[in-house]
Amino acid sequence: MQEPNPNSKAKRTARVLVLATIAIMAAILTWHNTLRPQASEPVPSGDLVELVPGEAVGDLYRRMVRVPDINTPCPGPLGVALLETEILPPDGWACLRLVNRSEDPGVWRIDMNGISTGYVVFHIVRKTSEQQVLTHLPETAISDRETGTRRLASAPFAVAGGEMIEIWATFPNPGNFQVTTPTLRPELDFDAEMVADAHTYGGLMGASGLLAAFFIAFAALLQTRPARVYALYFGLLLLLIAVQTGYLASVLSLPLGLATGPWTLLIGIIIALVHLRFVAAFVFEALPGHYFALVGRRLHRIALVLLGLSILIMLAVAGVAILTLLDVLTSVDPNVATQILSITVQLSSSAVSGGFALLGALHAIWAGRVLIGERAPGAGLFALGAVMLLGASIMVALGPVLSPVIDIQIAFSVMLFADALVFAAAIVLQTFGLRSQRDNAMEAELAASQEQLRLSETLLAAHQDLDQARRLAETHRTRLAHTSHDLRQPLMSLQLALTEADTAPSALRERLSSGLDYLREVLSESMTDGRPDTAVSGTGTDGSAEPVPLSLLMTNAVRMFGDEARAKGLTLRAVDSELSVRADPVALIRMLSNLVSNAVKYTDKGAVLIGPRRKNGSIAIEVRDSGPGMSAEEVVAIRESYTRGAQAHAADGEGIGLASVEALTRENGLSLTIRSAPGRGTCMAIEGLAAVDEQEEQDAGAAVQALST
Prior knowledge:
Layout: H1 6-35, E1 48-51, E2 65-67, E3 92-100, E4 106-111, E5 120-125, E6 130-136, E7 157-159, E8 164-171, E9 183-186, H2 187-222, H3 225-244, H4 247-252, H5 256-259, H6 261-286, H7 295-325, H8 334-373, H9 379-397, H10 399-402, H11 408-499, H12 505-529, H13 532-537, E10 546-549, H14 550-567, E11 571-574, E12 580-583, H15 585-601, E13 607-615, E14 618-625, H16 632-638, H17 657-667, E15 671-676, E16 682-691, H18 694-708
Parallel strand pairs: 1-3, 11-13
Antiparallel strand pairs: 2-3, 3-8, 4-7, 4-9, 5-6, 5-8, 10-12, 12-16, 13-14, 14-16, 15-16
Helix pairs in contact: 1-2, 1-11, 2-3, 2-11, 3-6, 3-11, 6-7, 6-8, 7-8, 8-9, 9-11, 11-12, 11-14, 14-15, 15-17
């Protein structure tokens, strides 16, 4: 049964994650926009805003006018608009007059539409009373708010039918109040908004928590660097959403200004840096050694440099403002310095966080393009995630424009959540795709290794065959050399016998018969030894041992080499003996012939004596000469093939006789001993011959007698 392809599994998993992402985004945004009431269009009425019970009044800041303080009457249409281009001084005031012309009363709240960093205090002023309904200062904790909830809104206030009220606002830090768009929202609409937020953020945070746990398990399971880095990235995203939505401030009971602004900036920068690392890790995992894998590290360094420059600029501007407030610099208005400080911090924070977000998104898009061009696994989903990340960054940048249409915070959180799912699908696809590629590569490498092993085994077998052939050829060459040496003396004897044939016919016949018989035996043995199976086995004889009379053996040797000895003036004789030994006669003849031949060749004067000796229960055949003798070193040297003593130049020959004797003695279970001394001649003995019993010795003697007659 064929196993399923891991790559197809990864594609199915990625497809499910993408479809789930689209479904979750659509469900959350549809749910939120369905439950979220929309603000009505503003009702223009000069300096007086008419209230209609059940309807909202949006963008209060655009309707308010400036006043010096709360003791000054709220001006009419001739008042200066709050959002005038001129900078509002610290602790400046603004007001707005409203009237409920209907007969029915209504209940409203001032809704800041989420977490706001525009610090403000709102008052409701009536003819006979004044009520502080919203306090939003840097040191204000969520538990200290009038509502006691994360959503920044005022306490509810009622407006009776026909009643006119005034909304007064003071701005302790007016440099950043323009970023908020407060709405006068009916109580029922506000309750619906709270329900929508609770459902949306509850579902979003719950799903994000589960997804974070999934990413941690996912990273531990896959054991890849992109999965580990992205698990950290998504954890930081979850923390950022918790900070921006006020969850961190609620849990830690911190002032909202301390729990949102600085933490949002810090976590946002860390997220951007981690995302650069994630992109670099993803590219490196897919394309090891690719130039783009180093781009992320370089951008990381550039981002750190830009962060340092931004901090220096912020510190420089803040230093000027602080020196002005301390009356060190008198040329700058303190009110202007305060607003410059506030605006600088706000703009610098926005520029740094926005710049980092844009840098990370563009880097991811660039990486996606490279991955698609290289056809890397998961490249399409990675590029989709990068585009979604860029869209989220653009949406935040266009927040003031889009806020009347959608809830920026909700949409941003949903997009980050969906983007996380898309990147997770890309990681899954990449991991399983790369593992499939690596498995295929390993299988191909294994097949190549097996083929290489097969070829190596074939080559080894060929080398072994070659070595076998070389050994066989060397064996044949050695045996032929030995045989050539062994045939030399019988041929010379035949040649001398033929020369004397006319004068001594009986001696000629005897010598011819002896020499030809020996030659036939040697040639027969050489042909047998030349067979491949015999050569490989390493044995040079057929192993047929029989009783051999030593007198016949030694007499034959004297006859064979007698003429050569006489030609050199040497005496060659054999000791009379009735001993017989059990041996291979052919091998024994060859060994003794070689020893006698060497003795005659290397002896210039004197005699050569052949005789047997009993030694340690066995028989030894000795060949003694009166030659120059040899040193111990020369004795060792001549036992090697093709090596002769220092006097070898005085005689002709192949110089391989002793090597042949050495080989034959080993093959027949015998040994060759050499005793020599310079100036005292040499004695060479074939030792280890077994003596025959009495009956065999009598049979051998009879054979000798028959041959003699």
